[in-house]
Design a protein that fits this description.
Keywords: Cobalamin biosynthesis, NAD, Oxidoreductase, Porphyrin biosynthesis
Structural class: alpha/beta
Distance between the termini: 64 Å
Oligomer: single chain
InterPro entries: NAD(P)-bd_dom_sf, Precorrin-6x_reduct, Sirohaem_synthase_N
Protein name: precorrin-2 dehydrogenase
Strand content: 15-25%
Bound molecules: ligand PQ2, nicotinamide-adenine-dinucleotide
Largest sheet: 6 strands, parallel
EC number: 1.3.1.76
CATH topology of the largest domain: Rossmann fold
CATH class of the largest domain: Alpha Beta
Number of domains: 4
GO molecular function, one term: precorrin-6A reductase activity
Strand order of the largest sheet: 6-11-10-7-8-9
Length: about 425
C-alpha cells in the first residue's frame, strides 16, 4: 500500500501543502478547516479533533510515513498531541509555522484574551474582536458589553455561543475571511471602533490586512502574543522534506540559461563549496567576489576578488547573483532573505528550501554546456550523474561539432 504524508492542517499553510499532489491524508479539526483542502488532488480528508491516543491509532492504521504539523500557532494542544503521537509511533514529524510576526505594529502586546479584556475594561471606546469564538468567554468580564463587536465564522454553533455570551445580533459580524484591508477598514468604521483585538497570526493569516486597516483608521491594536516561539519550518521546507522522506518524485527543474559574462556574482564563505562554485561562475565569465574571514587554497588560486572579512548586506550591492556558502546556518539564511528582498537570485548551500535558484552541476566544453540536476532532491545523485556525463562530454561535443561542420560543407557544395 502506498505510503502517505499525514498533514494536520486547517490553516493556509495546510492548504498550500495540498497543492503539489503528494499522497496525503489531510486532517482538520473542523469542517471549515477541511473545506480549505476540498478538491485537492491525491488527498483524503478526515474531519474531527483527535487526542494523542486516537492520533497514534490513526497513524498506525493508515500507512503514514511522515507527519507534517501545520496547525495554527495558537492550537498548542493539538501540536502537543501530534508530537506525542509521532514519538509513540516513531514516525518523523515536521512542524510548519508561519514566521512573519506583526507584533512590532501593535499598540499593546498581551499574553492572553483575559489580559486583553482587562485592558479594555480600563479604557473607553468601541472594540472589534477578531480573535475567534474560542476566546470569546474571556471578554464577558467587560462591564459595558455594548462596546464590543465580535467577528466570527457564520457557523450555527458559533452564533449560538455568541448569543449565550450576551452578544446580540447588532454586535455580531458573521462572515468567513480572508478580509482585505479595505473590508477591515469598513468594519472598523461601521462599528465605530477605537480598539481592534487580534492574535499574532502573521502576515499570511490576515493579520497584516488588519494592521493596515487599523493604521489607516487611527485604531489601536491589542495583540495577543503567540503562546511560545516554537522551532518551525516553512511550507517549502516541509514539501522538500516530505518528498525526501517518501522518495517521491517531482517535476524536473527548468534550467533557465543565464548569460553571466561580465556580470558580478558574490559568494559568502571561503571553504570548499565556495571554491567549487566560484570556479563554475568564473568559467561562465562572471566577475566573482568572495567574502570570508578565511579562504581555502583553491580560492586563493582562482581569478576572483577576495574580501577578507565577515559578510555584510552591502556586499549584495550591484550583484547579479549570490551564493551563501558559509558554515553558519543563520548567516546563510540572512543572506538568502536579503537577496530575495532585493530580487537577486540566491542559492543557499545548506538549505535547498531557502534558495531562489539551485546551483547546477555544470558540464562544459567550450560554449557547449549541460546542466545536471536531480531536482534538488539528492545532491549526491546530481554529482554522480554529472561526473558520468563529464567523462563523455568532450568527446561527444567534438564528434557532434564535426558532424555539424560536415553537414554545412555538404550544403555548400
Ligand atoms: C550540483 C552541486 C553544485 C555545487 O555545489 O557546486 C550542488 N550540490 C553538489 C554536491 C553536493 N552537495 C551536498 C553533497 C553531500 C551529499 C548529500 O548530502 O547528498 C553533495 C555531493 C557530494 O559532494 O558528493 C550537500 C548538500 N547540498 C545541498 C544541501 C542542503 C539541502 O539539500 O537542503 C546539502 C546538505 C548540506 C548540509 O549537510 O548542511 C543543496 C544543494 N546542492 C545543490 C547543488 C543544489 C541542488 C542541485 C540539484 O541537484 O538540482 C542545492 C539544492 C541548493 C544549492 O546549493 O543551490 C554539487 C555537485 C557538483 C558537481 O559535481 O558538479
Ligand atoms: N550545496 C552543497 O553542495 C554543499 C556541500 C557540502 C556542504 N554544504 C554546506 O555548505 C556550507 C559550506 O560548506 P564548506 O564545506 O565550504 O564549509 P567550510 O567550513 O569549509 O567553509 C565555511 C567558510 O565560511 C566562512 N564563514 C563563516 N562565517 C562567515 C561569515 N559570517 N561571513 C563570511 N564567511 C563566513 C568560513 O571562514 C569558511 O571559510 C556548509 O553549511 C555545508 O553544510 C553544501
Amino acid at each position: 500500500m502506498e505510503k502517505k504524508v499525514l498533514l494536520f492542517g486547517g490553516t493556509s499553510e495546510g492548504r498550500e501543502l495540498t497543492r503539489f499532489g503528494l499522497p496525503m491524508i489531510y486532517s482538520a479539526a473542523t469542517e471549515y478547516g477541511a473545506e480549505l483542502a476540498r478538491g485537492a488532488e491525491n488527498t483524503e480528508i478526515v474531519v474531527g479533533r483527535m487526542d494523542a491516543r486516537e492520533m497514534k491509532k490513526f497513524i498506525d492504521e493508515s500507512h503514514v510515513a511522515c507527519v507534517i504539523d501545520a496547525t495554527h500557532p495558537y492550537a498548542a494542544g493539538a501540536s502537543e498531541n501530534i508530537r506525542a503521537a509521532c514519538a509513540a509511533c516513531s514516525v518523523p514529524l515536521m512542524r510548519v509555522l508561519r514566521r512573519a510576526s506583526e507584533a512590532r505594529r501593535a499598540s499593546l502586546l498581551v499574553k492572553s484574551a483575559a489580559e486583553a479584556a482587562e485592558h479594555i475594561e480600563k479604557t473607553s471606546g468601541n472594540v472589534l474582536l477578531t480573535t475567534g469564538s474560542k476566546e470569546l468567554a474571556a471578554f464577558a468580564r467587560v462591564s459595558d458589553r455594548s462596546r464590543l463587536f465580535v467577528r466570527v465564522l457564520p457557523d450555527p454553533d458559533v452564533i449560538k455561543k455568541c448569543a449565550e455570551l450576551g452578544f446580540d445580533s447588532g454586535h455580531i459580524i458573521a462572515m468567513q475571511g480572508p478580509f482585505s484591508a479595505a473590508m477591515n477598514e469598513e468594519m472598523l468604521r461601521m462599528t465605530g471602533a477605537r480598539w481592534l483585538v487580534t492574535k499574532d497570526g502573521g502576515a499570511a493569516g490576515g493579520t497584516g490586512a488588519k494592521m493596515d486597516a487599523a493604521e489607516k483608521c487611527g485604531v489601536s491594536v491589542i495583540m495577543i502574543e503567540r503562546p511560545r516561539e516554537e522551532d518551525g519550518h516553512s511550507c517549502a521546507e516541509a514539501l522538500l522534506w516530505a518528498r525526501r522522506q517518501l522518495g517521491l518524485p517531482r517535476p524536473p527543474l527548468f534550467p533557465m540559461l543565464t548569460d553571466l559574462e561580465g556580470r558580478s556574482a558574490v559568494i559568502a564563505g571561503g571553504g570548499a563549496v565556495a571554491a567549487r562554485r566560484a570556479a563554475t561562475l568564473i568559467r561562465c565569465g562572471a566577475e566573482v567576489t568572495v567574502v570570508s574571514p578565511e579562504f581555502c587554497r583553491e580560492l586563493e588560486e582562482l581569478k576572483c576578488g577576495l574580501v577578507r572579512r565577515k559578510w555584510e548586506e552591502a556586499d549584495l550591492d550591484g550583484a547579479s547573483l549570490a551564493v551563501a556558502a558559509t558554515d553558519d546556518r543563520e548567516v546563510n539564511s540572512e543572506i538568502g532573505a536579503a537577496a530575495k528582498r532585493r530580487g537577486i537570485p540566491v542559492s543557499v548551500a545548506d538549505n535547498a528550501a531557502a534558495c531562489s535558484f539551485f546551483f547546477p552541476s555544470l558540464v562544459t566544453c567550450g560554449e557547449a554546456s549541460a546542466s545536471v540536476s536531480a531536482g534538488a532532491l539528492s545532491p549526491a545523485l546530481t554529482r554522480r550523474l554529472a561526473e558520468r556525463l563529464r567523462s563523455v562530454w568532450e568527446e561527444w561535443v567534438k564528434e557532434e561539432r564535426s558532424a555539424v561542420e560536415g553537414e554545412k560543407d555538404k550544403k555548400n557544395e
